[in-house]
User: Fold these one by one.
Assistant:
Number 1:
Amino acid sequence: MTDILAASPRGAIHFIFTQIMRNAFSLIAIVALFPVSYGAQSRAAPKPRPAVVYLSYEDARPVLDSLKEVLPSELGDASPEKLPLVWRDWVARRDHDIRSRLNKGDEDSLVNFLLFGTSFTLRPRLTLADIARAGQKENSEEATKAFALIQARAEDLIQGIVAPRDNERLLFARRLYEAKGYDLNNPAALQQAKIDLIKNLARVLEEQAGYGRLLDSARLMGDTSQELALRSKLYKDRGLSSDTSLKPNYAIERALASIKANAWLARASVRRVAIVGPGLDFTDKQDGFDFYPQQTIQPFAIVDSLTRLGLAKPDDLRIVTFDLSPRINDHLAQARARAAKGASYVVQVPRDLEWNSELAAYWSRFGDRIGVPVMPVTVPAALGMLKVRAVSIRPAVVSGIDSEDVNIVLQHLNLAPPESFDLIIATNILVYYDTLEQSLALANIERMLRPGGFLLSNNALLELPSSRMRSVGYETVVYSDKPNDGDHIVWYQRSADK
Ligand SMILES: C[S@@+](CC[C@H](N)C(=O)[O-])C[C@H]1O[C@@H](n2cnc3c(N)ncnc32)[C@H](O)[C@@H]1O
């Protein structure tokens, strides 16, 4: 998607902006921008759990000492005596700032919903590539049609937000707009909400084009490791999105198979696994869908793969997820609460016809170790011949997944050595952070891994001399013939204590 936009970014953005300006809507100032707040995480009977703690100054110090040139001025300029105190204040502020990036990520999700959603409209879906193509031909019939379609879909979405019924994505969008101060009973406010939606689309297009340009310039340098380093923090200024899909889990299964083949992990040796940023499939940015309930995939996919590979026994495996999104933590808590009453968790997995045969084979076997195939939900006519599988995951598997509110950049679980993790998975999450934040995240991860344990990530991370984490292998996995459709999974091993 980024690559297609990179071909004609300016045209696309200019197109959207000019169309917005040409429209008769008055750009009334938005009354107030309040942060979105969600219900507190509900939990069933609390059990003793390890505390979530901030990375102390002592533990962060080797990272800060090694990265002096990139420290924010307040940390970089502080005298050594003042640094411990300055660190404590910086951590509190940074935690707040990072968590506020969730709001922008939610707005990005609404843009995907606007373009791809089929649950609030019967109008055709639009991809960012369609818009980019139309933008190349300003004033053409194609451009006019595309903008009319965006307008009409935005109108339908706003109507859906006014009367969401039990559509959970519309209810989410409604909460988002209410939190922004919109009075959804007021026609002028609704008009303004529609403009807000289209302006957000323009912003997302502009961001995508920027990523495309950055990657192009990295490619032109002809240095693949530089390109990978740049890719690895591409979204450092972007909103925190919850996007997720099946694909990275296939890449993780391949990486685990390679780790097993090289005898880095023995049979049934994986007992404790953490997943950083499990994600929630709302309507993901790769032409996502909204015809099935929101779902998380990665925690289940990891149990499935570890069992299939014989690396874990399902009845001797604990999974803990770390996420700072209340929406995701709450979703998992509710799934556990339902599992406690005997309900299974159904995952719907659509199949992209462009996938290669290996990924298609993974799609076919997904879930066979943790559940049974069930009838998928009906695919809307607008999506043509889309193939979908559904797997009903056993309640015992769902109950074995705990979730913790952790900001991995700044926090970790304070674990006694026997509780430390054998494996930590972090895909499509560290890419949202810069070098300092990634290095702090790695320090937090290191504290939770047992000596010899592994972090698997699709990011190239800086390996500071002070860190016990070292990359020891990687697997490159291709998903289709499309350019850049694949992942490079690196495994970092924690060495024994010095
Ligand atoms: C783009 S999704 C990736 C989901 C999944 N890992 C995948 O690869 O499909 C990013 C996830 O990381 C979470 N996340 C982002 N920053 C985080 C942080 N600092 N600490 C913990 N979770 C974070 C988001 O809330 C979201 O669940």
Number 2:
Amino acid sequence: MLSNLVLESESLNKILEGKNVPIEDYFQIFDASQKDGTELFKVAEKLRRKNKGNIVTFSKKAFFNIINLCKDTCSYCTYKAEPGEDKVSLMSKQNISELLQLSRKYKCVEALFVTGEKPEQKYPEARKWLKENGFSSTVEFLIDSSERALKEGLFPHTNAGNLTKDEMRELKKTNVSMGVMLENISERLSKKGMPHYLASSKNPKARLEVLKNSGQLSIPMTTGILVGIGETPHEIIDSLLAIKQLNEKFGNIQEVILQNFQPKPDTIMKDFPSTDENYFKTVVAMTRLMMPNMNIQIPPNLSPKSYQSFLSIGINDWGGISPLTPDFVNPEFTWPEINKVEKNSNDAGYDLKCRFPVYPEFMTMINTELKERMDSISDEGLVMESYWR
Ligand code: SF4
């Protein structure tokens, strides 16, 4: 045990000095820190302060639940609807325009466009919806919605599952960033009885391909992992390593979201326990250790009582917070009020700033027209206070 502790502390010192350590050291640190995370948390805090100062960011957003029919089924998902269910969302062009106008009244900056995975491949209802709105694919609908968002003064960020390279190339013209969660790199989680068994789009190879394409297209990309769905700590490290390597190759991963699993009543995993907070904190701090420079986000609504305690173990972003729309992916967890998040951040010693859906250091990847739109309302790459307060 003593030798493990010595090794852990030697590796942590090397990481603090900016040196590389072998992957086995990460496994060792993770295992040791689950018993006592004190040393790991201290190092994560130092790295966070060194790389991100005392700023914590968020994006003031409206969530556009464009279509929640989905050809896949993940065992933890309550976002997906089946035709005929009360929660089905099939937004019309008119709905989009109305919500965009309301979003600006609430001074939102980001239009988050979310859809299920290729709904038109499985559901006649989705094909009918597209036809009624004058489109032949969900991506055409997304392109039209993104153009409308820009006209209203909002900045689109699309999260529509496994888009093709051509689809992403088209969306890049209007979207300042895009997102797709890796969830986890483990193929084991796609086996029978596991959460991604009925979700071919969540196959790690398919997800890595989307992320690789985003890199080749220089799209500022958000990705991340879902923590607590039956993975092992080693699979967490492997997943983080995959994201780190992608970013080393393409330099376009703008942030890593760490999402703690919470069971949803109407899902296959309804009786699975919520992610243990200490385990989740170990994952958060490990992410800072493995990617000292990365923007690291946890959603505050999923840790309502303790989110501020994550500031001192590595995170520097709260992600999108909406003053207007629910979190349709986690409908039972309402967003905290932005004022409250600001007070809690200040009390913990951090300043809250509103960012665009693209982080300042990734602005160089954006086309001139989009960049000029942001420049006119930005303050050092972040959103001018008067535009969002
Ligand atoms: S998580 Fe995404 S891919 Fe999985 S069922 Fe839900 S909407 Fe579909």
